[in-house]
Amino acid sequence: MSAAPIELPRWADVALVPLVSVAAALLVAGLVVIGIGENPLEATALMLRGALGSAEGIGFTLYYATNFIFTGLAVAVAFHAGLFNIGGEGQATAAGIAMAFACLGLSWAPGFIAVPLAILAAAAGGALWAFIPGWLQAKRGSHVVITTIMLNFVAATLIVYLLREVIGKPGSMQPETPDFPAQAVLTPMHQLLAPFGLRLPPTPLNSALLLALLSLFAVWLLIWRTRLGYAIRTVGANPRAAAYAGISPAAVTMVAMAISGALAGGLAVNEALGVQHRLVLDFTAGYGFVGIAVALMGRGHPVGVGLAALLFGVLYQGGAELSFDKPAITRDMVVVIGGVLILFAGALDGLFRRLVAGVLRSGRSGA
Amino acid sequence: MRLGSFAAALAGVALSAVAALAQQPIKPAVVYDKGGKFDKSFNEGVFMGAEKFRQETGVEFRDFEPTNDAQIEQALRRFARDGHSPIIAVGFSQATALKKVAAEFPDLKFTIIDMVVELPNVQSVVFKEHEGSYLVGLLAAMASKTGKVGFVGGMDIPLIRKFACGYVQGVKAGKADAEIFQNMTGSTPAAWNDPVKGGELAKSQIDRGADVVYHAAGGTGIGVLRAVADAGKLGIGVDSNQNALHPGKVLTSMLKRVDVAAYNSFKAARDGGWKPGLSVLGLKEEGIDWALDENNKGLISPEMKAAADKAKADIIAGTVKVHDYMSDQKCTM
Lengths: 367, 333
What we know:
Chain A is mainly α.
């Protein structure tokens, strides 16, 4: 999307640049940790042990990663069509609303009917919320960056109204729905794996992870193995050429945005249907925005998105453990470390591309 | 020291005698709500109480500030697994998580503030905010020259309507024909931290003639008190003693002693008198009070003080009943 793309060998593009970005980010984060008088090596060790050192830690890490896979994929699919969807938060909120109506209306239905319908409702809600900016972009030329972020606010206001006035639990202190019917929620992973002799500690990790992994595969299939995926990539690379080849950029824009929104709806599935078993205000908690960094770092490829989601899962869970064990490192400090990582992986990406390209070129001419 | 005398009163002489004999080693912990430890209000009150306990006894406590709902349960369970007890869960939003964790660790002690969780190892501390609001309402009616007073709430939830309802009853008791303006800042948690909007609401009430404004709005209330002080009128603080924020411009503060609740939970666990179940702190238990110090001495006339003291005694004696909004979700008098 930049004027003069820096050509890199494929291995450098998919592996080296992200690794250099992460390393640089950790270096800067380490300086921050030194600045408040803690040992950065110890902090890193604590973080990794907290995130990956126990079954419970891994459970939490994968639970966060599930959220990031959905929101990362949502941004990635839109990217391939040359669209910058920063409305993941709003689309997940709309998905949560649709899902809450479905769940509360399906209390009569057995689980094998209610759960798939609830997930479909979430996908439909997210898709609708993203289709609107897609349509505005395709037919009216309103830029999706503006319209998606504006619709975030509309969704945030809508959910307040609905939780207070329509589907909220009467007399509750918090804006939240009543609990979803017990059969209409996803199974926690520690219960799902218990019949196989695996005794896991209870964590928020639930079967939504399987849906997330399925989505990773489905997106790969869609983008690289279908006609629609080809059309999406073509429009993303050059809309005029696509139009010349008989592909309608307007139609592809709307379809890609709808798919993107449906994927963002997965965040609502994991949070509301999988963990909280009710719809609460602000359940999106910024995961939609982190999805942008995940997609950038994963270079839009499902494998990369999966790995980047895992990295951010480690960061979230390890960060919580870090602030738990080290009172000097507050939760705000953990946000700073995450912010540095996002900055280096996303915004400063071009810096390292140029650097890596330069090093590789000099290496080649020297040899 | 008020706190010391209160603790002694509540624990009872007998208990303190036992305490001297059998002090138990405890590992206390606090999980704040998402507002964070230093919110100048509710969470900070708990921190102050725990900190006071640490200074007095030398017993260290652990604490944690969660950033999302999943972390509340995670932190409670982490503390529980490390054998911490008592564990204080701050705020009503932790009830769901606490129910699960307390059931998993039946041998540990848990305290939840502002919410009721019925389990054999959970102590639920709630406050009779309506009683304190009644007293400051009475004072507001007596201090008002225009006969018009205001109330600015934070988030529109039953708890805050309880404050408003007690206040209205107090104002009417002071002056039967007084006019009361009520506004809520919003219907989301953001309403706890919007001092600009709080200030605007207070200004509009002052424009309509109010000359005393009571806030129950957390961080939003800082803006209410500032706007009222700037207009040369009187504000009323809440939760902690906010008289010193604008000396001479804050009529009084309705004290909700969450610090006492936290301190007591730790202290009782150490002294062996910790009891599960519901603990309702009102005027009688000194969990609720109104603030009188050198900052508002000049604003409270002897008649006002006498009236407030009498009302307080009447409420404690039960001859005056303040209606609790949350008992029937209505504010009828």
